[in-house]
Amino acid sequence: MRALVVSLILAVILRPVPISAQQAASTGSEIREFEHAPSRALGRDLLYSLYLPPGYAQSTERYPTLYLLHGHDGNHLEWLHTGYLREILDGLIANYRIEPMIVVMPDGGNSWYVDSKEVGGPGDYDSAIAGDLVAAIERTLRTKTGARYRGIGGVSMGGFGALHLAFRKPFRFVAGAAFSGALWTGLTPDTDLGERINTIFDGAFGQPFQVTRFLAQSPLGLVDGLIGEHEPPPVFLTVGDDDRFKLYRDNFRLFDRMRDAGLPVEMRMTEGDHEWETWAAELPEALLFFDREFRRGE
User: Fold this and answer.
1) N or C, fewer C-beta in 10 Å, the chain?
2) How far apart are CA 219 and CA 223, in angstroms?
3) CA 74 to chain centre
4) Could you please report the per-residue DSSP string of 210-267?
5) Residues 24, 25, 28, 32, Cα dihedral to 10°
6) Smallest Cα–Cα separation from 103: which of 126, 130, 79, 124?
7) Element of type H or E holding 33
8) Cis peptide bond upstream of 170, omega within 30
9) Low-confidence ranges of the chain (pLDDT < 70)
10) CA 298, CA 69: separation in Å to the nearest integer?
11) What does the pLDDT look like over 51-70, one tens digit per residue?
12) What are the backbone dihedrals phi and psi of residue 196, each rounded to the nearest 5 degrees, phi first?
């Protein structure tokens, strides 16, 4: 099944590989699955996996960096093992569709990628990823430094986290993407989800759940702060039309709000449910989106 999904995706997005491109990619990409970065924000190391593009070890080039976040109950290996990140990115690079990039995939637990230590939550993951991890990556790898060469994306809870981090000021990422983002745009102070709310958010917004804290840190709640800013981060949204959680509604709300405000945003509704097959199929378009933004940084 894995081989079939990969071959179908690549057949749609890629032209036949030129001989010169095959030779250029012959050194192969490199995957490191269990890397650790020291994090003062967490008081311990942050676990992450890493994709280094073909030729990284043999070159002296510097590369832009994409950070990809997992969803609720996920981990730092999902983009590699079920998202086909390596296969898709290798193919796009080999066919000269995009420039080589480094990809970092941190393990964020069920943190929603916000700072939550002060309310007894999973920890300060906003500071750990956008601060400690970025600093460690740019200190130890040959990256192009600065926000214009950093992108961030994520699935479901990770989509919430990616846009939360992209929208925070000062802007630390040039662009953000959400795959079926669990944006909770319909949540209000009057919404009653009962005990289920504590299971979903795992204390990331307080225990008991503090809806005002959530709304202030949600992507929709941060949109107004982008209006009038110089070069706010462009956003790529994608969601399946059969999403079992009906997250197309949330993503449309964010899309409409950003469009009405004149903010840069694009959206895709594709066939599929809230699952990795849907997200893997849209990954090539998202990678092309980030590549355009990295080039704009030049």
Assistant:
1) N
2) 6
3) 13
4) -HHHHHHHSHHHHGGGGTT-SSPPPEEEEEETT-TT-HHHHHHHHHHHHHHTT--EEE
5) 100
6) 79
7) strand 30-39
8) yes
9) 1-27
10) 25
11) 999 999 999 999 999 999 99
12) -55, -30
Report the distance separating Cα 263 and Cα 219, nearest Å: 13
Give CA–CA dist 116/119, Å, rounded: 6
Residue that has been written with the tokens 């702060």 in this structure: 225
- Looking up tokens 């979903």 gives 200
Q: Are 211 and 220 in contact (CB under 8 A)?
A: no
Cβ contacts of residue 96 below 8 Å, gap of 6+?
18, 21
Q: pLDDT at position 24, please?
A: 42
Tell me the two tokens of residue 40.
């003062």
Q: How many CB atoms lie within 10 A of CB 58?
A: 8
Q: In this structure, what DSSP letter does residue 148 have?
A: G
Residue 4's pLDDT is 55
Sole residue written with tokens 């405000």 = 261
Are 288 and 98 contacting, i.e. CB atoms less than 8 angstroms apart? yes
Residue type, 206: G
**With 0-12 CB in 10 A as exposed, 13-18 as middle and 19+ as buried, what is 9?**
buried
Residue 275 pLDDT: 98
Question: Where do we find the tokens 């071959």?
Answer: 7
Smallest CA-to-CA distance from 69 within 48, 90, 87, 89 is with 48
DSSP string, 81-140: HTS-HHHHHHHHHHTTSS---EEEEE--TT-TTSB-GGGTSS-BHHHIIIIIIHHHHHHH
What contacts 82, CB < 8 A, 6 or more positions away? 276, 280
* Residues 110-162 pLDDT 10s: 999 999 999 999 999 999 999 999 999 999 999 999 999 999 999 999 999 99
Return d(Cα 184, Cα 241) in angstroms, integer: 17
Alpha-carbon span 164 to 154, nearest angstrom: 11
Q: What predicted TM-score, i.e. pTM, was given to this entire model?
A: 0.93
So what's the pLDDT on residue 221? Answer: 97
For 98, the token pair is 């995009």
